[in-house]
Amino acid sequence: MASWPTELQQCLETSGYQRTIRDNVLRSQMSYGPAKMRFMTTNKIVDHSGFIYIEEDLIAVLDQFYSDNGSIPFDWINFQTGAPATYRFRSAPAYRAVGGLEYTATLQLEEVPS
Q: Rounded CA gap, 16 and 64, in Å?
């Protein structure tokens, strides 16, 4: 399994970081009475979004990592505990110029349950 590139920032910035537990309940409307509800999966799916600072010359490194691992899980760290975790990209990185040769790369990830 691939690991997050060591050349890149090793944690999402706390400013703008968002963690969301994805709704895991399937609701079926009954002809009478309350809706029937059940879990779709026994594992909770957690989405993470945030950004890292990245120098212009390292954008190619992140783009290549995304090309190689766009739908394949990769190892990184849990952004709250620092423990090892496994993630998958939900979308391609989005870049925004900050100034000079520095950019932010916005990442949309999902944590793969272990």
A: 25
**Cβ atoms of 40 and 28 closer than 8 Å:** no
Structural tokens at position 55 = 């120098």
Digit-coded pLDDT (tens) for 65-80: 999 988 899 999 988 8
Residue holding tokens 């963690």?
19
Burial of 80 per CB tally in 10 Å (0-12, 13-18, 19+): exposed
Closest by alpha carbon to 70, among 49, 85, 86, 91? 91
pTM of the model: 0.81
pLDDT digits (tens, 9 = 90+) for 5-46: 999 999 999 998 999 887 667 778 888 888 887 766 667 788
